[in-house]
């Protein structure tokens, strides 16, 4: 992996769909270890209340 392809940035409401999709891909039923489900509304509220970060690689989370 080339670290030059990864950009750490503050998340925004435009990232909500990708964050939820990524969390769903990491559910136990898909072989992941993430417990619980993220709802889009909860992600939006969290992003609006506190700084959150994303690390897209080549523009994709």
Automatic annotation (TrEMBL):
<protein>
    <submittedName>
        <fullName>GCN5-related N-acetyltransferase</fullName>
    </submittedName>
</protein>
<dbReference type="GO" id="GO:0016740">
    <property type="term" value="F:transferase activity"/>
</dbReference>
<keyword id="KW-0808">Transferase</keyword>
